[in-house]
Amino acid sequence: ESYHKDSNRVILKIAKAYEEAIKEINRDIERMLGNLMKGNELTKSEAKKLLNQKVKNEVIEQYQRLSPTIEDAKLKQKIIAHIEAQAYGARITRLEALKESVYLNLSMIADVELRECEKLYTRTINKAYYLNCYDIQKGLAIGFNVAAMPTEVIEEILKTNWSGLHYSDRVWRNSQVMAKKLEQVLLKGVMTGKSYRKLAIELEEMSEDGVFAAERLIRTEMTYISNQAELQSYKECGINEYIFVATLDSRTSKPCRKMDRKRVKISEAVVGENLPPLHPWCRSTTRMGIDDEALASMQRRARNPETGKTYLVPANRSYSEWEAQFTNKST
Question: Is the pLDDT of residue 32 over 60?
Fold first, then answer.
């Protein structure tokens, strides 16, 4: 929960970036289409004629204006490659100009997301590593020195392609999928004679999908990042196994329910199989593999599915055992 609270600030920044991008796109729509859409219902032929009219090519000018603010070098290269591949002349159609506005503004959102996420993930790796080392020593009632988290390990965690696609590529893919969706909404809105105001509202509503995709990615990556850092702390402290810990509430997935309280050797940890995350939005974590007697003296949190209130249960109680008490009550 602590790690995900840190995520909230980044998600808010991304939502703000979407808000600003949609405003910029709407300003471009109003500027490029003039007063023709303000309260006027264009026919299909009028809309088509309007979109195919040639206007001054401002794509390069837009990029030059935005380029200094883009921090991600890989992203900057992709934008340059995209612009060069278009081979636009001095004049382009209004439709092409509007598509480029969407593309560049969504690319700017990707830059914000990549920049903020890298800082968030780096902070979380260090926080999770040292906090778990502290918890291990507290649990063992033995204090000892631990090595600093090596820079190369942090970099390895950040660059690992653990789910088939690196998070930076997922950010880029999500932004381009969103750009295509916005282009379709824009084109459909103009071709069906929607007023400028109605189209602006629809674009704003559509941007919520982009924020949702960004949040899903960040929440899942945070689970991966924090568990990888804790895995390093187990190795540093000489812990040989961990216990899988699922969240005791009704939202927990079936894979995580089945893994709850299972013991796994550190050397056999595999992300997605026996080490969280097992799926998108995964909230599971781990604890060091202490013996059952010690575990029985500890507690873990659970959420009552009937009242929604959080309470404590013995730490050695598995998800299936916890769930059974409510199943029995209902029968």
Answer: yes
Residues linked to residue 284 through DSSP beta bridges, in sequence order: none
Tokens of 267: 């050397």
Task: Name, in order, each residue with C-beta under 8 angstroms of 273's C-beta and a sequence gap of 6 or more.
Answer: none
Burial class (CB in 10 A: 0-12, 13-18, 19+), 199: buried
How far is it, in rounded angstroms, from Cα 101 to Cα 26? 10
Cα separation of 115 and 53, whole Å? 38
b (16+ CB within 10 A) / e for 54-92:
eeebbbeebbeebeeebebeebbeebeebbeeeebeeeb
Residue 330 has a pLDDT of 47
Average pLDDT in the 68-83 region?
Answer: 89
Which stretches of the chain are assigned E, i.e. beta strand?
54-56, 91-93, 241-245, 263-265, 285-288, 299-303, 310-314
User: Do residues 243 and 286 touch, judged by C-beta distance below 8 A?
Assistant: yes
Residue 63 Cα distances to 18, 115, 207, angstroms: 18, 19, 22
Distance CA(213)–CA(178), nearest Å, equals 9
Report yes or no on whether pTM surpasses 0.85. Answer: yes
Identify the bridge partners of residue 286 per DSSP, sorted by sequence position. 244
Tell me what the mean pLDDT of segment 124-146 comes to: 90
Lowest mean pLDDT among 121-125, 236-240, 293-297: 293-297
Amino acid letter, 235: K
The four Cα atoms 41, 44, 46, 47 give a dihedral, to 10 degrees, of: 80
Closest CA to 223 of 163, 264, 171: 163
